[in-house]
Every structure is written in C-alpha cells, then in structure tokens.
Amino acid sequence: MADKDGDLTARIVGGVAALAAAYVTRKALTLAWTKAVGKEPPADPEAPDISLGEALGWAVVTGVGMEVARVLVVRTVHKRFAPRRHRDIKDLPV
Fold first, then answer.
1. What's the pTM value of the predicted model, to 2 decimals?
2. What stretches pass through the bilayer (predicted)?
3. What is the pLDDT of residue 35?
C-alpha cells in the first residue's frame, strides 16, 4: 500500500497525537473537576454512593472534552501533513 500524498503519514501521526491529546486532556479535566467540585471525579460512575447528577456531569464533561481535543488535534495534523487538495483562486492561471 503506497503512501498516497502523505495520507497514511497523516493518519498515523494523527492517531498518535490523538492518544497523547486524550491523556493530557483527561489529566486537565480531572484537575479542573477537582478544583471546581472540591473532590476527585467519580472513578466508577455506577457505584451507588455516587449521585446521578455527579455521574452524568462527569460523563458529559469527559465526553465533550475528549472529543473536542481529538477533533482539534487530528484536524491540525491533517492540515500539516496532508497535501493541499485545492488551490487558491489567485494561484490559478489567467
């Protein structure tokens, strides 16, 4: 399988960058949750001693936060490694 126009490279680097971003984002979200709520986020949201609101709140925060980080990192990597597919109008011959 040939590396067509840097697409394979962008996918591999994007995957590795997404994993790194997930790790950093998870740490940042845990720190922010601890500062905002005053206790550690729920490790097991299904535990009976965790309130439903706290479990749902942590699920929403981590879900949205992780996905936003992943999308931003993967898009940045693809912009960097993928070739330009469309030319600017000013680059077209007259």
1. 0.73
2. 55-77
3. 96
